[in-house]
Structure formats: C-alpha cells, structure tokens
Design a protein that fits this description.
heterodimer; A: 219 residues; mainly alpha; B: 338 residues
Chain lengths: 219, 338
C-alpha cells in the first residue's frame, strides 16, 4: 500500500521533472530538474529492490556528472534573445523532423513483438542468501569480466583524449616546486655583505647576490 | 520485533518518526553546543576566555545566538533567484541531517540498517556540494559565485580520495553495511592497520566540510565570506548549523570506519559495562576536538596547494594503499567472504 503510493508519487515527479528539463527557459533550472529526475529514478530503483544501482546512480550521476554540468552551465553566458532569434525560420524544419520521428516510433510500436523466449529470462529466481551488491559483483567479475574491462578501457581512452585536447604546456605563470623549496639552504638564498659606511646599497648588483657567499657571514 | 500496533504499516511509519525524533533532537543540541565548544576551544588556544556571560560558563550562549538569528531580518538581494536562494540553505542543512538515518550508535541502533549504508553515506556527502553551488549562483553576486566555484572544485576533488579510502576499509570488511563494518573491528580497530588512510580520510573530511585550513570557499580575507555572503538571519543560520552538522557527520563516519564505532576501546569488564552510545559519543567528541584544534593551529591553504594536495598526493596514496591492502589480504588469506 505505502509502496504503491510511493511508486506513483516518485514516478509522477520523475516524469514531471523530465518534462521541465526540456521546457525550462533557464538552463540552470534545466540541470536542477535533471538532478531531481535522477534522484526520483534512484528512489524507483530502491522500490524495485535494486539498492546498489540506486546509490550508484546518485553517486555517479548526481554527485559527479551533474555537478560538472551545473558548473559549465553556470559559467556560460547565455543570451536568451539570441537563442530565440531563428525560431520562426527553423520551426518548419524542426516540426518535419519531429513528425517523421513520431511516425517511425508509432510504426515500431504497432509492429512490436516480444521474443518468444523472453519470459524464461524473467523466471530466474533472485538468490536469497545474496545481497544485491554481492550478486552484481559475482557476475561482473566472473562472467562479464571482459565486457567490464572493455568499458573501463573505453573510459580510459576518453579520459586520455580529453586531457590531450585540453593540455597546453603553460610556461607563463610561475609554478611552485615544493621539493626545490625544501632543498634550499640558507647559504643559497642569503648573502651577507659588509658594507662600507656611506656607500649605500648600489654596490649590491645581481652578480653580487648570486656569488658564493662568505662562509662566516652566511650563518 | 515490534508487535501489535507497531507491526502495521501505519505503526511502522509512526515508530520510524519517533526514532528519527529521538536521533535528531540530541543531534541538534549537539550542533548547538559544538558552536559553543568551538568558541571555547579557540579561546583557550588564543589565551582568551570565550563566551562566559550568558548563563554559568556561558552555557546559554547557543540559545542566545539562536534567538538573535530568529529575530533578524531575512534580506533577499535584488536580482537574486528568490526560490533557489532560499532553497540552498535548506539543502545544506537537510542533507547533513538525513545522512544520520543509517548511522548505528549501538549494535543495530540505526533508524535504517540498510545493506548499502556506506554507499548511502557517500551519496549524501557527494550531494553536499549542491547547497553551496546553488547558493553562490542564486545570490547574483561575484564574491558568492567565486566561493561557489572554488567549493565545487574542492569538494569534487577530495571526494575521489574519500571514496578510495572507504574502498580500502570495505575490502577489509566485505560488507557495505555500517553495522557489519563496526563489528568487523571487534579484534582490532582499522585505525591501526590502516593508519595512513585514517589520516587521509580525516584531512579529506576537513576539505569536504570546508573547514580550516581548507575553508577557501569562505575565505574571509579574499572573497569576503564566499558563497553565503548575501545570506542573513535564519537562512545564514541554516548554513552555519549545516556546517557543524556536517562536521559531526564526518566525525561519525571516521568513528565507524576507523575507531570501532560503539565498541569499547578497552575490552575489560568495567569498560565493557559502559553502554555503546557513550563510547560512540566520546569518540565523535575526540574527532570534533581535532577539527577545532586544527582550525586554531593551521593557516589557510593557498588554492593551488589545495588542489595539488588532493590530486597529486592523496589520490595516488589512497589508490596505492587500496592495492596494497587488497594484495595483503589475498596473500595472507584474510579476505572476508560475506
């Protein structure tokens, strides 16, 4: 009873916020509605008994991906007038593409047949002594090991690609090198000079600063 | 477990609400007195007296502050995004509270003893950044936005090493259930074999809760007060209390992961008679003291140093330690089979 109410509540909020993602005028609001949609999807996972997937959905999508989305969208300087500018010119084209897609989806839905052996897959019982996480781990790290590693490799390639695209060798700003700072001794940085009275500081040229300091005065 | 009325659907709902109240009320009192403790500890370090006027030893100070906050005017800046502006502190404070749903203060004394408790905690702490970003953006102020951007980068960076530290504890326990994680420490606390990870976790926790020396999102000397510069009255108080509630939560996580939760530190008879929640509270208090002590002692990090520490020191260290832990468990045959 309570589970049913919760399901319909979460599902309704999920659909409503998914619609708001594409209709909201402010892109930041769109991202926030997207986050709401993710959280409700996680709640539906919990209701379906897939608690591991629910938590991973929140950690990966809401905690990492959407933060970066929000970060980028907030930094963008979106000009709303420029966005609406070509609306009337592009409307016929957009409507045509939308109509074709609708017809295609409709044709697919009408001719949809479920594979005859599909109902057998549903009958596999959930193991009782296993938790969700254990069951997933047992499958991923044994039977689907290669698929799993392939996905990991794909992510690695994407990451290397992103780094290559954005990496520039910046010589300009001075960087801190902590090791070299720690390795410096007083003798390397401090020069003691015995000045003659009335000569002023003009004598201390850069050459004098870099010169080997006098051992007695360096202490 | 429960019988009669409390076994029905409606009864379970009522029972859960009562349990939540029994947890939240002491928690909020703890948050209030943490602000008092912070002022007293800082005062002691700086050879001052701290609050000592309101009540005996200044003990009513938190309530005086709360009443003052309630009666101040809530100012909503011109050009701000009104709803998000008011929503942001609610997120920050709410997240700090709901994470406590899974924390066991004694054997099976959690409101929800779920299988994926550790993941739940990690998920909630990864959401904490939203309160800060939304506050910074909705304020429509340059300083607030700078603070929010700093905080987003900082919290996302340190979460990576927190995740890896949690993983190295998890390979030792073989369970995501917080109750099981504490019970796995009956023989030895994980603080001893995983000491470097405790240090990494605690420092990352400082960064995650935006505490000194990593309080760059606030950075009074550079960006006024960072993301909550435009907030006043209760909306400010919610951010303030959220920060302290997050500190208590981080200390609770440290206690559960490394300091043996409610288990007695000395396994002899007079000490094992002390009830578990008391040990839990004492351990959390020790962690909180270190939080305050660090704030009183260390100067603020520079931003590039903060990023360097997170990505170039903690990430390789925690990743390496995870591989080391897993290898050691495999070689000695200590892997838990849950």
């Amino acid at each position: 009873m309570i589970a049913a109410i919760a399901f319909y509540a979460f599902a309704a909020i999920l659909l409503a916020s998914a619609c708001m993602v594409i209709t909201a005028r402010n892109p930041v609001h769109s991202v926030l509605f997207l986050i709401l949609a993710f959280i409700n999807a996680a709640a539906l996972f919990v209701l379906a008994g897939a608690e591991f997937l629910a938590m991973v959905l929140v950690i990966v999508y809401v905690g990492a991906v959407a933060v970066l989305f929000l970060f980028v969208v907030m930094m963008l300087d979106v000009d709303f007038a420029a966005l609406r500018e070509g609306f009337q010119r592009y409307a016929p084209l957009g409507l045509t593409i939308g109509f074709i897609l609708m017809v295609e989806i409709g044709l697919t839905a009408v001719n949809w047949t479920i594979a005859p052996a599909a109902h057998l897959a549903v009958l596999v019982p959930t193991p009782e002594h296993l938790t969700n996480t254990n069951a997933l781990g047992n499958l991923i790290y044994t039977r689907y090991m290669f698929a799993f590693e392939l996905v990991a490799l794909l992510l690695l390639v994407a990451m290397v690609g992103a780094i290559v695209l954005t990496h520039t060798d910046r010589r300009g700003p001075r960087r801190q090198n902590i090791n070299s700072q720690h390795d410096r001794t007083i003798a390397q940085t401090l020069t003691m000079v015995n000045m003659k009275l009335g000569d002023g500081s003009r004598q201390i040229t850069p050459a004098a600063r870099n010169a080997e300091p006098d051992k007695e005065t360096a202490r | 477990m429960a019988t009669g009325f409390f076994a029905t659907d409606f009864g379970i709902l009522i029972l859960t609400l009562l349990k939540a109240l029994a947890l939240i009320v002491p928690l909020l009192i703890g948050v209030a007195y943490l602000t008092y403790a912070e002022r007293k500890v800082l005062a002691a370090v700086q050879l001052r007296r701290g609050p000592n006027v309101t009540g005996p030893f200044g003990l009513w100070q938190p309530f005086a502050d709360a009443i003052k906050m309630l009666f101040k005017e809530t100012i909503i800046p011109d050009g701000s995004n009104r709803y998000l502006f008011l929503f942001a502190p609610v997120i920050t404070f709410g997240l700090a509270i709901i994470a406590w749903a899974v924390i066991p203060v004694n054997d099976h004394w959690a409101i929800a003893n779920i299988n994926v408790g550790m993941l739940y905690l990690f998920a909630i702490s990864s959401l904490g950044v939203y309160g800060v970003i939304i506050a910074g953006w909705a304020s429509n102020s340059k300083f607030a936005f700078l603070g929010a951007m700093r905080s987003a980068a900082q919290m996302v960076s340190y979460e990576v090493s927190i995740g890896l530290v949690i993983l190295s504890v998890l390979v030792c326990t073989g369970s995501l259930n917080l109750n099981a994680i504490v019970l796995a420490q009956r023989n030895i606390w994980f603080a001893i074999p995983l000491l470097p990870m405790l240090v990494v976790f605690f420092i990352s926790g400082l960064a995650e809760t935006n505490r000194a020396p990593f309080d760059l999102p606030e950075g009074e000397s550079e960006i006024v007060a960072g993301f909550f510069v435009e907030y006043s009255a209760m909306s400010f108080a919610l951010f303030f209390l959220g920060e302290y509630a997050n500190m208590i939560l981080m200390s609770g996580m440290t206690t559960i992961l490394f300091l043996g939760g409610w288990l007695s530190p000395i396994p002899f008879i007079p000490f094992t008679w002390v009830p578990g929640p008391i040990w839990f509270i004492l351990k959390v208090a020790v962690c909180l003291f270190v939080f305050l002590w660090v704030r009183a002692t260390l100067p603020r990090f520079r931003y590039d140093q903060l990023m360097q520490l997170g990505w170039k020191v903690f990430l390789p260290l925690s990743l390496g330690w995870l591989v080391l832990t897993a290898s050691a468990l495999e070689i000695f045959g200590w892997l838990p089979h849950a």
